[in-house]
Design goal:
alpha+beta, 316 residues, four-stranded antiparallel beta sheet, 5 helices
Length: 316
């Protein structure tokens, strides 16, 4: 049974004249977060703490996953004055014997706060109407109201670890590779240009909600090289691109392709190579683990001029 209906019955027994269903929080206390009919927004995510090398403060380059709303969510209803007045006006007549969901205790705390206000926020916990019986049962284990000091969070509903992982994924930013051509000053037709990449071995985002946390980790797993017109690309690449490091390129003859790079077929004033890196993304924590959608990122090198070899002794 919905706790609002249950409390309405308790309120009637206690002599409360205002039906619970008609009660609304103070007009200046809400933030627009909460349930309206069957539409429920996800305020619980505001309490998730994110961190890690792949967290960029809200900037992300993953394709967002549609994370389902949790079964219930905390809605701010006011401070020590407005929130306390709201709770007392609606439930001030509830006795300890008739109280459910710690409402009586919240009323007593509200009276104390109203007498001696301190900084903080009252939250109410409505149930998501789309939660279903299982989700509603989770919410019914939590109090209806919670007084929260600055920097703290109210008691959290049980959020599936996959949902928490998907939320972290939606806040992950994975760096595109840095692409360097070797040699980088100029290329020559029928001679190899090698590609070197700078890519971190992994990035991660940790999402923590109450005592529960999961870590989402992205690792590069493959690289493909493409080139501008005038070149044939080769993609026998490691995560760092060619196995040959800058300053230690092999001495090869005409027509010998690079392991990771471009063999130029014709002259151009804008020779480039593009490296596309595929990242495998996994998550683990809160008793679960799994795989999330892979991420593909590309970056193009700066352009170089590619000349004919015979132009060395000509008009180059």
């Amino acid at each position: 049974m919905n706790r609002r209906v249950m409390l309405a019955g308790v309120a009637a027994i206690a002599g409360l004249l205002v039906p619970l269903a008609a009660a609304t929080p103070p007009a200046d206390a809400g933030t627009g977060v909460g349930c309206v009919g069957s539409d429920c927004s996800v305020s619980v995510w505001q309490f998730v703490k994110l961190g890690g090398s792949g967290y960029a403060g809200g900037s992300s380059n993953t394709v967002p996953i549609n994370v389902p709303p949790p079964p219930c969510l905390w809605n701010p209803i006011g401070d020590a004055t407005t929130g306390s007045q709201y709770i007392i006006s609606q439930f001030g007549s509830v006795t300890k014997q008739d109280s459910l969901f710690d409402v009586y205790q919240s009323v007593q705390q509200a009276k104390k706060l109203l007498a001696s206000p301190v900084t903080g926020t009252w939250y109410e916990l409505p149930i998501n109407p789309n939660a279903g019986p299982g989700g509603a049962a989770q919410c019914l284990k939590l109090p209806l109201f919670a007084w929260v000091l600055p920097g703290d969070a109210p008691p959290m509903p049980n959020v599936p670890p996959l949902d928490l992982a998907e939320y972290a994924y939606n806040n992950m930013k994975i760096p595109a590779p840095k692409v360097r051509l070797m040699p980088g000053g100029k290329g020559w037709v029928n001679l190899a240009t090698y590609v070197h990449l700078t890519t971190p071995g992994r990035v991660f985002v940790t999402a923590r909600l109450g005592r529960e946390f999961v870590t989402v980790t992205a690792r590069p797993v493959s690289t493909e090289i493409t080139s501008s017109s005038g070149g044939t690309a080769y993609s026998n690449c490691g995560l760092g691109g060619s196995k040959y490091q800058p300053g230690h390129l092999p001495t090869t003859g005409p027509g010998v392709p690079p392991d990771c790079g471009v063999l130029w077929q014709s002259p151009t004033t804008a020779g480039t190579a593009t490296a596309t890196v595929v990242w495998r993304v996994t998550w683990a924590g809160a008793g679960g683990a799994g795989v999330l959608p892979q991420v593909t990122l590309a970056r193009t090198s700066r352009a170089i001029r590619v000349a004919e070899i015979q132009s060395v002794n000509g008009n180059n």
